[in-house]
Design a protein that fits this description.
Layout lengths: L11 E2 L11 E3 L6 H8 L4 E15 L6 E16 L3 H11 L3 E7 L5 E7 L5 E5 L2 H17 L2
Parallel strand pairs: 1-5
Antiparallel strand pairs: 2-4, 3-4, 3-7, 5-6
Length: about 150
Amino acid sequence: MVLPPPRGGGASIDVARGPKAGDALFSYGTLMFPEIRIALLGRTVRCRPAAVCGWRAAALKGRPYPGLVAAADATTEGVVILGLSGLDWKTIDRFEGPEYLCRLLDLAGGGTAWAYLWLDPSVVCDDNWDPRRFGRDTLRTYLTAWYEQ
């Protein structure tokens, strides 16, 4: 079963061409979890570890997911999601919602990938988002809430 995007709307795209089928997505948050990718896209997708320098995955006040924000001395680890179709991109864009800006970033070690950057500094916490804690404490209830929509 493919789950409906929980956040509604769509993210802004800052480059005229925007992501297209075959482009890579750098994920630093909930989409690092295979269970969420499968629920969202209805299938498994290829991923590989990746990182971006100059950005951090910030915890956000009142939200279980992070936002990628500029931080000169930071490096954020995540995954690059490969083999996305045009429909996948539309689905992901709706999932991310209008709180994000989709932008092409340089990956540590070479290459580029699209990433969703957080736009609202008023809810950015000083702490980084902890994917291990999300997986341990929140993932199950996050997915359950999705399925109940």
